[in-house]
Amino acid sequence: MTAGGTPDPSSRERFDDGLQVERTALSWQRTGLAITAGSLVGARLLAPGAGWWGIGLGVAGVLLGLFVLVRSGIRHRHVHRVLTTALSPAPPTAAPLTAAPPAATPTQLPGAVLPAVVAAAVLVAGLVAFGYVIAAATAAAAAG
Q1: 16 φ/ψ sector (left φ>0, alpha ψ -120 to 50, else beta)
Q2: Which of 7, 51, 58, 98 is spaced 20 to 30 A from 122 at the CA atom?
C-alpha cells in the first residue's frame, strides 16, 4: 500500500478485482434479509396456532437474520483487507528511524463460522417445522 492508502500497482496485479468478494457479501446480505423476512412472516402465521412459541421462534429467526447481516459485513471487510494488504510486496528492509512500526495486517481468511451457524439454524428450523406438521397431522387424525 502506498502512503495515501491506495494499493500499489504490483499488488493489484496479483489481486483479481473482479468483484467476487462484493458478490459474496451481497449474497450473505440477501440471506440475512431472507431469514429476517421469513421469520417475521412465520411468526405471523404461527402465532394464532402456536401462541408464544410461534412468536419466540420468529424473534429467534429475526435475531439470526440480524446476526447474519452484521457478521457478513465484518466478514466482507476482513476478506477485502486480507486480499488487498497481504498481497502487497514486502516493504524495503531499511526503514527510516522516524517510521512507526507497521500495523499488524490480517493474513488469514475468515473461517466457516457464518456458514456453520446458518446451516445449523436451517437444520433446527427444518426439524421444528417437521415436528409442527407431524403434530398438526396427529391432531387432525385424532379429531377426525
Answers
A1: beta
A2: 51
